[in-house]
Amino acid sequence: MVTLPTEERVPGVPLVHVARETGDAVAAEQPGLRRLGVLATSFALDAPFFGRLLGEGAGFELVLPDAAQRRTLDAAIFGPLARGEAGRDEGLMVSTLCNALVARGAEGVVLGCSELSYARPWLRCRAPIFDATEIHARAIVREMLRA
Question: Which residues of 58-95 are buried (b: 16+ CB within 10 A; e: fewer)?
Fold first, then answer.
């Protein structure tokens, strides 16, 4: 995982930040949504960029997994999902976590880790799902086409 201590910009090179792009996409697709659940690694959830750019910057109140849910999520992300071994079990686990965030008031849920995309075929959530990897990839292509 590559992280920058701040939003460092290189002159002439656009910064396409995953959290900012995800916030913009959620706001455009679901304008009334205010409480947004986020599933990602503990490292990403603890990093300041989610709160600063996706939460405060985009105007969302974030609903995050608790400590036990984070351990479960980390084990799946760094285990079978990282190996590309997603199946019904992983989809059920991610669905359970999504719906737990919805039960706590999330009106939509961001899959904030690329490995979580592997579970999408089996994912059943009672709220809209926003795949940050897909959103980020589309934003990068958009910026490439502008250049």
Answer: bebebbbbeeebbebbbebbeebbeeeebeeebbebbb
pLDDT digits (tens, 9 = 90+) for 95-123: 999 999 999 999 999 999 999 999 999 99
Check: CB of residue 17 under 8 Å from CB of residue 49. yes
- Does residue 55 carry a pLDDT above 70? no
Rounded CA separation 120/107 (Å) = 18
Sheet containing 61-63: order of strands? 61-63, 35-39, 108-111, 129-131
Gap between the Cα atoms of 72 and 39, Å rounded: 11
Amino acid at the residue 102: V
Quote the CA–CA distance of 38 and 9 in Å, as a whole number.
26
**Which pLDDT score, from 0 to 100, does residue 94 have?**
95
Instruction: Enter the pTM of the model.
Output: 0.87
Helix 18-29 with 132-146: angle, nearest 10 deg? 100
Q: Is the pLDDT of residue 53 over 80?
A: no
Name residue, tokens 């690329």.
114
